[in-house]
Structures are given as structure tokens and as C-alpha cells.
Amino acid sequence: MINVSRIINDPRVSQSFIIFRKSGIWEKGRFVQSEDNINMQGVISVAKSKDIEMIPEGDRVGGELAIYSTQKIFTTRKGDISKQKDSGTSDELLWNEERYKIYSVSPYSDYGYYKAIAMRKASC
Fold it and tell me: Where are the domains of the chain?
């Protein structure tokens, strides 16, 4: 298989961005959420119409992005309840001073990368 991670991390095409990862634990019947900032590197481009059709909100058009990264990006997930970790809401991307919510992730880890589709929060 072809590993494209070298292309995604190539400084000629990649850029730095920040992912806000929300996670939390159940404490006394309430979900206590925390947010971590994660610096990532990858390729960000405008999402194609075919990419947008793949998300449930495909009829919305308003600043969708395609993100290619070698690091994991998450949508809302349920973690290991017994260990009370890794559960949280979708990651958010900060790019060009705007926040985008991750709606879809395609794990192409066999090829060395992850592809995510994000929608600008102002248009949600």
C-alpha cells in the first residue's frame, strides 16, 4: 500500500492548525467536559461537492473544509465507560480565525492519513 503521510506533512503543501478536543467524565450524575488544544499539521482545502454529500447535513453549503492529517481527528464518540475516558463531542478546528466543527472522519490509516469534513460553526 502507498503511504501518503510524507505528502501530507510536506512543508510545501501542509500547514499548522489547532484542534480543540473536548472530552469529559461523568461526575455525580453530571458530564464534566474539558477542552484541550492540540497543534496539528496537515492539508486543508475547500470540501468538494462529493465530500459534502457524504455528511447528513449535505444540503447545507456554508464553508465546508476537507482536512487531511496523519493525526487522529474525532467526531462525537462514546469512550470506555469502565475507565471513564475517551468520550467527548466532535473536535473543532481553528483555521483562519474561524471555528469549524468536525462532522465526518474517514480513517485511511492504512494509507497513513485521516480525512475529515468540517463545517464552519457560524453556518451551523
Answer: 5-123
Rg (CA), the chain: 15
pTM of the model: 0.79
Domain 5-123 has what CATH class? mainly beta
**pLDDT tens-place string over residues 7-51:** 899 999 999 999 999 877 778 988 788 899 999 999 999 887 666
Query: What does the chain come to in residues?
Result: 124
91 three-state secondary structure = coil
> Which position has the grid cell 461537492?
49
Residue among 113, 108, 71, 112 nearest 91 (CA) = 71
Average pLDDT over residues 93-102: 93
Task: Please state the φ and ψ torsions of residue 7, each to the nearest 5 degrees.
Answer: -70, -45
- Give the pairing type, strands 64-69 and 92-95: unpaired
CA atoms within 13 A on the CB side of 89: 10
Count other C-beta atoms under 10 Å from residue 121's C-beta: 13
Tell me the backbone φ, ψ of residue 6, rounded to 5 degrees.
Answer: -65, -35
